[in-house]
Structure formats: C-alpha cells, structure tokens
Task: inverse folding
C-alpha cells in the first residue's frame, strides 16, 4: 500500500513539475492551451442532449460557437439562448462566463497555483502578465505598474472576491425589479443572477426571450446592468487599486488614471454621437419619449465597452451610428478586464503620442509621468494586429454570406472586441462563417499581445546596433 502511495505521489509530482516547467518556460502558450481546452470541454458539454430543453442535442457548429462565445465572454449567439438551452446547459454556460471573465492568464496562474500548491516567483510573473502585457512582451519592467509582483497574491484574492461580491450586489439590485415585473421569487433570483453574471463578465447573454425590451425605459434596470458592465470593463487591476486607495487618488497608478479618464471620455462621446445620429430614427430611439432617448444612447455607449446588451434593434440603426459603434467596440474596455478590444489604454497612448509629436515633445508625458517608447511600440502592434484580424475575418465571412459589408464588419468587430452586439448577421451564418467568427472571438479574447508572445519561439537579443536611417513618413 505504501509503495502504491509513493508511486501515486511521484506521478502527481511529475505532473506538477511538468506544469510548472511549461508554465514558466512559455506562460502565454500555457495560458492559451488552458483557454482552448476549456472551450473544447464546454463544447462537449453543450453537445450533450441534456443541455437542450427538447433533449435533441445541439449541432457541433452551434455548440462550439456558443462555448467560444461563453468562454470569450462575447455574447454572440447562433441559437436562441432563452429557449434552446436547458437548466443544465444554462448552468454550464454560466460557469463558462465566470471562467472566461477571470482572464486567460489569471486563470492559468490560478490553475498553476492549484496544481503546484504554491505561488512562487514564476507563477507571480505569469499572473502579473495579465495586468501588464509588457511583462509578456519583454519580461519584467522597472516602471511602476497597476499591480506589482509583490501584490499578485492580493490581486488573485481581489479577482475572486470582486467577482462574487459585485455579482451578488447586482443580483440584489435586479431581482426585486424582476419581482415587481410579475416573476416568481425563484425566477427573479435565477434571472437576476444570470443578468448580473452576464453583465459583469461583459457577455450580454439574456435569460428571457424578450430580452431587455420590457425594461427599455426602466432607469433602475438599465443603471444596474450598466454599473456591472462598467465595473467589469475597468479591469481587475483598477478594481484592486480603487478598493485599496479609494481615499487617496494621488496614489493611483498611471494605468488606473488613464483607464478611468479614457473610459469616461469614450462613454460620454459615444452617447452624444449615438443620440445625435439616431434621434430621428423611428426604428430605434426616435420612437422613444424625449426623456428616454438620452438614457438609451448612454446605455448603448456603455454596452460598446464590451457589454453586448441592447434595448433597440441594432440592425435598424443608421450606417453612421454603426460606424461609431464599430470604433467604440474596437477599442473595448480596460486591460486585464472582462472586456475585449485593443483596450482603452492602448488608444490613450496612441493619442498621447500624436499629441506629443504635434507639440514637438521628445517624450510622451501625462499626469507628471513619462511613457517609455516600448509602450508606444506595443500599442501600435496591438492596433495593427487587431485591424489585420478584423480585416481578414471580414473578407472571409463576406465570401460565405450575402450580407452587406457594413453589417458583416459590425458583427466581426463585435466578435473581435468580445462585445456581443449584432445586426442579425451572426444568427444567419453558415457553419463556415460560424467557425470563422468563433476564431475571431478567440483571437480577440486571447489578446494580440498574448498571441504574438505565444507564437514567438524566443525573445531575440541583439548585441549590436545597426546604422540609423530615417525613411519618409506621412
């Protein structure tokens, strides 16, 4: 018996050591492997007959798409989420939302912690990379960041506690409103938790066939969902900093300040643009009371952070409005958050660089801090890779469907930004289009920086500097 125990222990230790070695040698590849494995596992679960209401099972393309949408916390769907899935299927999807909302690298670091029963320096580096992509790109950096290595244990605790606390709080806000709407106690609690989870993870799945249409003019319901979406899109490093230093804003890091300021500007600017472009559209907010229209425009602007909920038919919006929302969805939310996109700090760095260039400054400076050049290079890389992914996916889907370019582009950007808003193209895609859009969600959620780091065999170190020459730009 003792020999068997030793053998079992040695096998477990070998597995643990292999996981530790693989995670340390290539954190990005390890995270992507875990992430992809979860998608395939959820696909298998959703393919079971018990996952559907009529016990007929779900076609592989639809099960895979839904699993990818859940783990990527996107919210796009090819089936009716309210009537297709059974209680078992909905619970599986909710678990997928929670897992996906934690984040690819944070999830991988937690798995490594569970397997190895410790959080050493290598695991801390892995978890830290989710809060600062530069650590993935070029190793630890010396600048003050949102979360330092010594605070990673606190970050992981904050992730777990904030998820449970915020979703419970939002459930308490939504459930009484559902009770007042005539639903029974159990349905109110269940649907309230579903809405809260879907909102905080920035997914956009709804548990009812009518969606949010009954609450289109309800400020309480829309405010509760918007609050959850904003908190989820800010990112765990920002939540960590706000929870710890909410009384002393001067101690907020540059990342926290840029995330809050840029998010606020985008929400306000988006709301004004949507209101101005749609105010006379009788198919959307033009048919609402004048008092309700600003609330709807603000709600839609918040949802482009990656929320995915809507109280109007997106397919009926003007092309100009869709283009504005394309840009907002492409940006997405904060780094290390449940949102997708290129991230608000990436946009902020690019604008600050353009502003510095216009002024003739040699450095990018903001909030009495200097942003190093490698951050700008990384921001440019993220935007270019993101634009390339969107362009390739759009061209591929245009070959599989007869839908117009503006509608296809909107749904592709929604997939890349893991937003979930749709013009109606997604649900009518052929199987080939579903797989293409699923791959777009995967690339958008994994992140262009993580993907690039995973594909790079090693970090190149050049021990010499070539002669400098300036090409003509612009």
Result:
């Amino acid at each position: 018996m003792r020999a068997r125990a030793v053998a079992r222990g040695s096998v477990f230790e070998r597995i643990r050591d292999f996981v530790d070695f693989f995670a340390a040698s290539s954190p990005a590849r390890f995270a992507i492997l875990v992430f992809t494995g979860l998608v395939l596992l959820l696909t298998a679960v959703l393919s079971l007959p018990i996952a559907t209401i009529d016990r007929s099972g779900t076609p592989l393309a639809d099960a895979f798409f839904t699993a990818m949408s859940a783990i990527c916390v996107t919210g796009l769907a090819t089936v009716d989420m309210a009537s297709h899935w059974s209680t078992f299927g909905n619970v599986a999807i909710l678990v997928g939302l929670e897992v996906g909302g934690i984040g690819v690298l944070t999830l991988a670091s937690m798995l490594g912690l569970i397997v190895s029963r410790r959080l050493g320096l290598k695991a801390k580096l892995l978890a830290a990379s989710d809060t600062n992509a530069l650590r993935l790109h070029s190793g630890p950096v010396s600048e003050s960041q949102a979360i330092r290595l010594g605070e990673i244990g606190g970050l992981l605790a904050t992730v777990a506690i904030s998820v449970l606390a915020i979703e419970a709080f939002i459930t308490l806000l939504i459930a009484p409103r559902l009770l007042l709407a005539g639903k029974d106690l159990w349905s109110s609690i269940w649907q309230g938790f579903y809405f809260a989870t879907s909102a905080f993870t920035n997914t956009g799945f709804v548990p009812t066939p009518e969606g949010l249409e009954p609450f289109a003019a309800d400020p309480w319901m829309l405010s509760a969902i918007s609050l959850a979406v904003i908190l989820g899109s800010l990112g765990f490093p920002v939540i960590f900093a706000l929870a710890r230093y909410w009384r002393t804003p001067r101690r907020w890091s540059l990342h926290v300040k840029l995330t809050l300021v840029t998010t606020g500007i985008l929400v306000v600017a988006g709301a004004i643009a949507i209101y101005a472009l749609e105010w006379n559209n009788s198919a959307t907010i033009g048919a609402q009371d004048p008092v309700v229209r600003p609330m709807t425009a603000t709600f839609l602007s918040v949802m482009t952070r990656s929320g995915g909920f809507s109280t109007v038919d997106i397919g009926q919006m003007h092309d100009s409005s869709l283009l504005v929302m394309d840009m907002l969805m492409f940006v997405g939310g904060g780094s290390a958050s449940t949102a997708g996109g290129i991230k608000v700090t990436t946009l902020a760095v690019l604008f600050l660089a353009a502003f510095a260039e216009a002024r003739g400054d040699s450095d990018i400076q903001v909030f009495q801090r200097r942003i190093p050049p490698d951050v700008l290079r990384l921001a440019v890389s993220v935007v270019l890779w993101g634009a390339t992914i969107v362009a390739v996916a759009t061209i591929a889907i245009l070959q599989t469907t007869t839908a117009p370019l503006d509608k296809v582009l909107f749904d592709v950007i929604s997939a890349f930004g893991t937003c979930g808003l749709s013009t109606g193209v997604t649900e009518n895609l052929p199987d080939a289009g579903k797989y293409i859009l699923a791959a777009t969600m995967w690339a958008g959620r994994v992140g262009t920086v993580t993907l690039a780091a995973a594909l790079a065999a090693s970090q190149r170190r050049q021990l010499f500097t070539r002669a400098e020459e300036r090409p003509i730009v612009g």
Confidence is low (pLDDT under 50) at residues 139-147. The longest strand covers residues 364-366. The first helix runs from residue 2 to 25. The chain has one domain: 6-137+147-455.
